[in-house]
From TrEMBL:
Positions annotated to bind (2R)-2-phosphoglycerate: Q180, K353, R382, S383, K404
InterPro entries membership: Enolase, Enolase-like_C_sf, Enolase-like_N, Enolase_C, Enolase_N
Enolase C-terminal TIM barrel domain sequence ranges: 156-439
Pfam assignment, any one: Enolase_C
Cofactor(s) the protein needs: Mg(2+)
Protein family per UniProt: Belongs to the enolase family.
Cofactor binding remark: Binds a second Mg(2+) ion via substrate during catalysis.
Pathway(s) of this molecule: Carbohydrate degradation; glycolysis; pyruvate from D-glyceraldehyde 3-phosphate: step 4/5
Region (Disordered): 44-64
Record protein name field: Enolase
UniProt key word Metal-binding: yes
EC number of this enzyme: 4.2.1.11
Species the sequence originates in: Paraoerskovia sediminicola
Catalysed reactions listed for this entry: (2R)-2-phosphoglycerate = phosphoenolpyruvate + H2O
Amino acid sequence: MGPTLEDFLMTTDRIDRTVAWEALDSRGRPTVACRVELENGAHGRTVVPSGASTGRHEAHEARDGGTRYGGWGVRSAVAAVNDEYAPLIRGMRASDRAEIDAAVEEHDGEPNLSRLGANAALAVSLATTVAHGAAENRPLWSTLGDPAGGDAGARRATIPMPMINIFSGGAHAGRAVDIQDFLVVPLGAQSFAQALEQVSDVRAHCARLLDDRGGWSALVADEGGLSARLGSNEAALELLAEGIERAGFAPDAMSIAIDVAASQLVDGDDIVLAGQGDRLSVDEWLDVVVGWTERYPLVSIEDVVGEDDWRGSSAATRRMPATQMLGDDLFATNLDRVDRGVSESAANAVLVKVNQAGSVSRAGRVLARAQDAGFATVVSARSGDTEDTWLSDLAVGWGAGQIKVGSTMRSERTAKWNRLLEIEAIDGLPFAGASVLGGTA
């Protein structure tokens, strides 16, 4: 009997060469690009994303400082890949992705990867993940296996429900309004293709409404959302609700999500809405948000209070049990923080961003822990993203259920939507549907 496919892969999927270089993200800032080449000729290439509204508890991103690119250069992180990680992982098998991630993390030596930079570690992790898929000549999503990296078996692969940006404020749009993102969730869609078509229609109606009210729909924010100085945060909700109605959708078929990114609004013990001149206690702020859930089809709220306000997060989840209460800065894709959130009922859903964790394995363990605890999970892009499409495959292969990428324009956003359309058309996977949201039961 001749050698099996497994025998072949064991001798040929070993890493031969790893090369990193400085590239640009969607905001024009430098980031780390990396290519991992295998002995069998397969390779994986990736360009690492970066956030704008970053939490204090994220893995540490290495930046050079100085005058190049306003201090945003990443030559030190590139050197870390080329000089330290490349020789470390040479000869290791790409299919042993968790072992490679562990070796990289041990070599850095700091829990938040601050010695050499999480962007350096993630470049290696992502490029290796893509190379593994290429070596097996299979869709990337189908090679991911158990997100926790164990032997429990893969979760059911599905096309995720999208959460799509329509209006932006906060750090993504020059603080045109205080709240960072106003999004829609196409709960009535029966397929991903239909979901994208429906949301595009809503965005077009909102753009016309914005123009009619003296705005300029040609202006877009970091993630492709519309940007305008509206009178208040609620004015954006009103406009979005009207756009949904004019597009012909009932509230239960096209609902609203918001990303408050409240850590940027915290001043001492208060929440400050500078755009409308309000200073509110956390309890007063929650009264406002509860009122919004009663007046608008608001099904998901992200980071409603500051990143370290566990009491406020628990209170918000208790007061709005029918709403998906989503933690981003609160959890920072960190396993210990998710464990605390589960024990304190500080949310019912976790946003997963691989660059917050610093490796695909770490992010996968966070997603698995959240799902095992009964939390909903949302795989998310960053505001400074790239043309890569691996995020779509992660959301599918991990069975995340939901994905948050940005709006329906800007090519770094549409690349990920287009990849999901491809997976749906070619691989025939089922659409997750509305049941994947947290807090809606």
